[in-house]
Amino acid sequence: MGDMLACLRGWHPGLAKAELAALMPDARLEMERSARWVRVHGGSDVRRSEALRIASGLQCFLLDAVVSTTDDGSPEAWLESMAAYVDAYPVEGTVAVRAWKQGSKIPGWSTSELSRQLGGVLFERGYSVDLEAPDHVLALVADGPTASLACGWMEGDGQAAFSNGERKAGERPFFKPVSLDPMLARLAVNMAAGPLERGPVVDPMTGTGGFLIEASLSGRNAIGIDIHSEMVQGANANLLWAHGGNDPEHAAVKRGDATRLPDVLPGEWSGKVAGFVLDPPYGRNSHGSMANDPLLEASLRSARAVAHPEAGFVLILPLHPLAEHTTDGLPLDHPFALLNGEWPDVQRLVTSCGWAPQSVHVERVHRSLSRLILHARCAPQD
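RE: above sequence
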């Protein structure tokens, strides 16, 4: 098999790439012309299939993908090159062509017409076309901002959105306005924990249980912890609701202290927790007896004490919006303006607790609020 091209969702390509890197640690990722395209070098079939099943930011893979620029070519020349591609990478069974565009149109290039002509190429080569349930789909993706085309045999569902419509935060039986969207919650879990086989996930301050829901629905063993009985009851109701009223055996909500995780978690989880996800309560939503920084420090140290050697940690903090909106990863020394505290102090705190910051991203919530998403990994201990 040649190169694979990962097609990412447009919501936040930078976070989607970080999620994919965490789920496929055995692969090397390389950015392509479009911010939503990533070349994937290596990586096992099992990891790729798993990423397609559980990732929040991944649309599909294009196998043996070809990326072309339209700046110096013509639709006719491109079609000739794709005829050669079909000859070089034949498949068995029924086929179909599916096309979509990202952003604006490419002037002088009709995605629908190219799709029709590409279908003609397949027909001329004796393929049986099945538009309803084909064995193989030849995908054509047009990226308007870079005037580029990507084409290849598709693995995955293509244009389908992350399936969170039936469990939006506002639909849960127990809801708070600060609840995270399922798309971000799932992505944070995947960034923190990596491949499924690495180990369980812990949310030390589970609140309404958004992280726990997404971890459990992806098949991970998971525990959500909260010190407040109201939150424990509410998160448990939400967990049952997300699983159709059934009590999942691999996930649970427990009342406990985020600063004393060994007292709450099963003994066999010690040294095996693969991921921690933390969206701490701040400001008017904070009801703890400790100040925010001491609480965060104690929680980070407690997590480090039970972490797998390759564990990850995702910390989400409220942030004043950036001057310029971006979905790219940002330097760790960027002068972020947190709503509470100073960013350099948070970095020093995370590092002092045994975690090595890896990347930082910003998600815009609305015009006066953004979220900072910090991804850290377990630092080796002396």
